[in-house]
């Protein structure tokens, strides 16, 4: 069956540097990521070598300050890089997003001394990060976390378990939110914990529906001792730091979801224009043409939504509501588009011989991570109508 060559997304980029950056990302995606994605996902292989290449290429610290090894790129550009990577393989795109999330606390709330000491290796020195907020008993209700950090002279001793940690067990550093005070959001503090700290260990990775190449695991802190110079921000400021990071992280998930949806649409269009039934291309049947048109429209709407939120962020304006909207719309769109792509391919779409079944399995998790889509609706509604009455 002849395939119709899909065209790259026509991106509106602000600078020639950004256009060159997207060209570099597409080249790496086509040569190093996409060809091995299906096989390595099926085998559960984590592509650490790809993250090393991305670091060497300056792609792991794009939205951060070049003074510390970052790329000085606006979020408008960084998110489109994520979309390209996620379209090639979600394990990579989401992994870069999580790494950026793990760098956020130190880059935005750390002292100058902390930034000079740690950020160059985190942003461009080959290290890979993880973000530790969720716990077995506190997911959406993150302010009820139980992991404790107890002061011992000039050190802190961390004890507890974090859950659903992307890169758990393979990360070189963990940004950890732990309770240092009383109950609730004001008793939480952020810490930077090295991956080889004594007392830190990871459970076996979760057995997941999709993203099998990306390790997701519980991380245990059994009396992990770190010095006070690894505390990020003030005591009790951790939850505010976490929420700040999540606003940006939700845009990363929105971009990744758009990439997965775009990849699924490309597969569906290629199949529909090459497959013939009843003497015609199936793409010539109106029912299927309308399905493809709806898929493309929702993807473009999602892309416009996450880019609008990114431009607000780049301008220093509030963007939390728009980030929640983008995360909600783009991930719901990814679930719908990937499901429709399976339908377009019919029985073939249900087999592992075609990528759309993998896209559909991967899209589901994007409606859950970085705050479920029910939480996103709560966030949006609070911006519209104020806090809920108690």
Summarize the helices and strands and which ones pair or pack.
Layout: H1 16-43, H2 48-56, H3 75-88, H4 90-109, H5 112-124, E1 129-132, E2 148-152, E3 155-166, E4 173-179, E5 188-194, E6 200-202, E7 216-227, E8 231-232, H6 238-274, E9 276-277, E10 280-281, H7 286-314, H8 320-345, H9 356-366, H10 373-385
Parallel strand pairs: 1-4
Antiparallel strand pairs: 2-3, 3-7, 4-5, 5-8, 6-7, 9-10
Polypeptide structure, described:
It contains ten helices and ten strands. 49% of the residues are buried. The termini are far apart. It is an alpha+beta fold and 390 residues long. The protein has a four-stranded mixed sheet with strand order 1-4-5-8. The protein has a four-stranded antiparallel sheet with strand order 2-3-7-6, with no helix packed on it. The chain is globular and about 80 Å long.
Topology, number of strands = 10
User: Sheet with the most strands?
Assistant: 4 strands, mixed
Which structural class best describes the helix and strand composition? alpha+beta
Q: What fraction of residues sit in β-strands?
A: 5-15%
Spatial strand order of the main sheet: 1-4-5-8
Helix % is 40-55%
How many helices does DSSP assign? 10
Which geometry do the CA atoms define?
Answer: globular
Oligomer: single chain
Through-space gap between termini: 61 Å
Output the radius of gyration. Answer: 21 Å
Rounded mean pLDDT is 96
- SSE ordering: HHHHHEEEEEEEEHEEHHHH
- Uncertain segments: none
Can you tag this structure with a few keywords?
single chain, 390 residues, four-stranded mixed sheet, four-stranded antiparallel sheet, 51% helix
């Amino acid at each position: 069956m002849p395939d119709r060559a899909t065209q790259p997304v026509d991106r509106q980029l602000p600078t020639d540097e950004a256009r060159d950056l997207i060209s570099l990302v597409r080249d790496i995606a086509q040569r190093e990521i996409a060809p091995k994605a299906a096989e390595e996902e099926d085998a559960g292989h984590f592509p650490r070598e790809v993250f090393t290449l991305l670091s060497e290429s300056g792609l792991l610290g794009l939205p951060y300050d070049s003074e510390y090894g970052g790329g000085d790129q606006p979020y408008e550009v960084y998110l489109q890089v994520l979309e390209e990577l996620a379209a090639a393989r979600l394990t990579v795109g989401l992994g870069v997003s999580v790494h950026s999330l793990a760098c956020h606390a130190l880059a935005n709330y750390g002292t100058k001394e902390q930034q000079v000491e740690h950020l160059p290796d985190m942003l461009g020195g080959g290290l890979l990060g993880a973000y530790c907020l969720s716990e077995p008993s506190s997911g959406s209700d993150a302010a009820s976390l139980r992991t404790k950090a107890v002061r011992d002279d000039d050190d802190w001793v961390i004890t507890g378990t974090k859950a659903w940690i992307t890169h758990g067990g393979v990360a070189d550093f963990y940004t950890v939110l732990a309770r240092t005070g009383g109950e609730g959001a004001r008793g939480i503090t952020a810490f930077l914990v090295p991956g080889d700290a004594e007392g830190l260990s990871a459970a076996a990775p979760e057995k997941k529906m999709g993203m099998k190449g990306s390790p997701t695991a519980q991380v245990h802190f059994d009396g992990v001792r770190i010095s006070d110079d690894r505390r990020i921000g003030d005591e009790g400021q951790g939850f505010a730091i976490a929420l700040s990071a999540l606003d940006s992280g939700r845009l990363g998930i929105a971009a990744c979801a758009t990439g997965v949806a775009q990849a699924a649409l490309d597969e569906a269009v290629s199949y529909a224009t090459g497959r013939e039934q009843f003497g015609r291309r199936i793409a010539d049947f109106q029912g299927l043409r309308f399905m493809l048109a709806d898929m493309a429209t929702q993807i473009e709407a999602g892309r416009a939504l996450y880019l609008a939120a990114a431009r607000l962020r780049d301008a220093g304006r509030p963007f939390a509501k728009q980030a929640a909207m983008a995360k909600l719309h783009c991930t719901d769109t990814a679930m719908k588009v990937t499901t429709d792509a399976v339908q377009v391919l019919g029985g073939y779409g249900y087999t592992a011989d075609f990528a759309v079944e993998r896209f559909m399995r991967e899209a589901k998790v994007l409606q859950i991570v970085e705050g479920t889509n029910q939480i996103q609706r709560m966030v949006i509604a609070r911006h519209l109508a104020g806090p809920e009455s108690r």
